[in-house]
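Thread: Modeling a multi-component assembly for a lab meeting

Hi all, long-time lurker, first post. My supervisor asked me to bring a structural picture of a complex we are working on to next week's group meeting, and I have zero experience with this. I have the sequence lines for every component (889 residues in total). Could someone generate the structure of the whole assembly? Inputs are pasted exactly as I received them:
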Amino acid sequence: MKLSALHQSYSTGRDSSSIPWLLFHFLCCLISLVLGFRFSRLLFLLLLSSSSSPSTPNHHLALTLTTTLQPPSNRTLFSSRVVVGRHGILIRPWPHPDPIEVMKAHRIIDRVQAEQRVQYGVSNPRTVIAITPTYVRTFQALHLSGVMHSLMNVGYDVVWVVVEAGGTTNETASMLAKSGLKIVHVGFDEGMPSSWEERLRVEDRMRIRALRVVRERKMDGIVMFADDSNMHSMELFDEIQKVKWIGAVSVGILAHLGNSAEELSVIQKEDDVENSPMPLLGPACNSSDQLVGWHTFNYVGQSAKDIGDMGIVLPRKLEWAGFVLNSRLFWDEIEDKPELGKDLDTFSGTGDEIESPISLLRDPSVVEPLGSCGRQVLLWWLRVEARSDSKFPSRWIIDPPLEVTVPLKRTPWPDAPLEISSHDKMESIQENIEKQAMKTRTGSTKRRSRSKRKREARAVVDTQILPRHSGEK
Amino acid sequence: MKDWRWALVGLVCFALVLKIGAVERGRGQPTERISGSAGDVLEDDPVGRLKVFVYELPSKYNKKILQKDPRCLTHMFAAEIFMHRFLLSSPVRTLNPEEADWFYTPVYTTCDLTPNGLPLPFKSPRMMRSAIQLISSNWPYWNRTEGADHFFIVPHDFGACFHYLEEKAIERGILTLLQRATLVQTFGQRNHVCLKDGSITIPPYAPPQKMEAHLIPPHIPRSIFVYFRGLFYDVGNDPEGGYYARGARAAVWENFKDNPLFDISTEHPTTYYEDMQRAIFCLCPLGWAPWSPRLVEAVIFGCIPVIIADDIVLPFADAIPWEDIGVFVDEKDVPNLDTILTSIPPEVILRKQRLLANPSMKQAMLFPQPAQSGDAFHQILNGLARKLPHDQSVYLKAGEKVLNWTAGPVGDLKPW
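Re: Modeling a multi-component assembly
Sure thing. I ran the full set together rather than chain by chain. Output:
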């Protein structure tokens, strides 16, 4: 594909003589710069070409910068409009994406995907009833908006049943209203305790409360448990449409990643039941894809006790989030359904604990394994929380905006380690401190007047503030 | 009388409802029947419609060449070898040449490979000439018609012009000895010297098992708008651009390299086949020759081919209505490719996808081993069967000679 013979003749010609060739070459280079392509090759091709048949290649002299083409000099025998030879590279005046075209293309993509869903997806999609226990805390906005965005992107109808510990609040309600989904906001009379064990038990009771709501309102659909700190994939919602009565999916456990490396490696050593780098909770099947058991999580060792502790937060043996139920399980009239061993109403108070929907059933073997029998991980479990006594501005809005923010040298919490790297300079609690400074203005001015520092740009809050802080807890 | 009228009205209503029902059902169907200009011929069975006689050539024309370089079995020109193997064991083969309609000469002209794997066409004219001399001297059937009822498979870049450079190929023209024979080739461009009337265009060979191994479930949503992987500038042979692909590939790059809808690049990923199945449009621009295996890959993976090659003739053009299936873009319209593609109505796009989903369409592009019904081998035989019966004028009278055996470049006349 080379004009290699030509190249050789050109180079030998150049060796033989010097100045006139150099000048000529220079002239050709200048012309090439103007025209935009290598002009000298073309010239030599025309001069030294030996064949004189009418099918000599035509050379289209076109400029790369403009879009005009000149007609070819001599034509081939055939009346073909396609000519061989060098063509220009056509570039339009503004070769960048046009936003209107991009929108049209996205509409086409949506239409094609809708058609794909009609042909290969679920034929009769059922409503997804997502049950989420929540309570107002620092990270509530973070977690809840994650679940909210997942549910907003689900292609099916969604009813979101949010049970809030400590009664319904405006904060949660305002966040839920932004989603545009059908919300059932239920208040739960207990507040959320500060130890993990207690919290998990209260959450169980909240979920039972939500199931009672589902039963009362005779909701029809698929019940799934979307804990607010979990991460759900979109394939999960496609997969749960396949459930008949009660199904189980595999949940990946992302242990609290704020730990040091040794604690994580301890997890992996203990959890040698399956050699996966990420522990899973879910159904276990034999080779004919029938449910034979469960992958559970067994960890012996230190774990976090209180919410916000810097320890590993662990799941229990089986998590609610890994199960999906057909809401018709709770309807009385349906005959052909697996028997509920216990009735929803019998769970009240702190006496009876149920850790997973399996305890509801009389016969746990009717559970259907989903997600190619548990091999697909469709959601991930993680519990990350700030300390229960951490302060945050209501609805994460600071109004009016702060004028001055100053960095803090030491953390106000006494039991946390004293060395904090400069990254963890607690910029997030600057607003805290400022807010408290605004609340107790007299106290802070006393502080500032007492310190002898005259500089106003940097005010260092020293340890004397700590006793005041603990007094406000 | 009144009863009769009511019955008629009732019948008409019933027929209308049925028709509407049929149309609606057709809308929701995943595929649609394909019928080209020759009619609904993709599923025709050639057995019984024609008889092919396979000449027994010495193995230096076929087996020995293949033994020297077994790469010939996997590159895109492998159709000539697999067609030979198919015909040897096919029911259309006859051992009695007197009753044969078509005669096949198994000569592997595209198996002289460089270390890189590209075939060199320099010895192919001599090889072909030597084979024809053999068959014309050992059997009387060549001289009877001067090759008009013979067919040859020439899957090289420019078919029987036997050169990879287009200018040189045009200069040489089709080998004089093949002027009357039917050529089965991959190259097709209207009004081009190297495509003669009555040729059968076939798709290039693409390995069927390799493609089937990379199929993904059909419910995975198609999220890429336009997909292309390949060269835009052939830096080794045409550094400035403008020569390679007549500047069309370079124009695609320059106009759309920053467009998020166009997933185009020169990197060849391991998920190439899977990505094609996630794309709505796949570009199939010309390269040094107008045809490419991308068309086959696009059809197999259900991605609408966007063909950028002026005047190209696509495989089995009389059996497959390519206008309904692919999108044809003139090379001069490449800068407006995004406007063209986004202005296609969604119903048209869905219809194209339905046509592509037709399994007989995918079968027709493949050369599976062992052969299956409806595949490319059968389409070639169908094409040959459609050309029957031979016109009486092709049979020459005794002593009449039409072909000039000494025409062509002097180098071709050397014995092989």
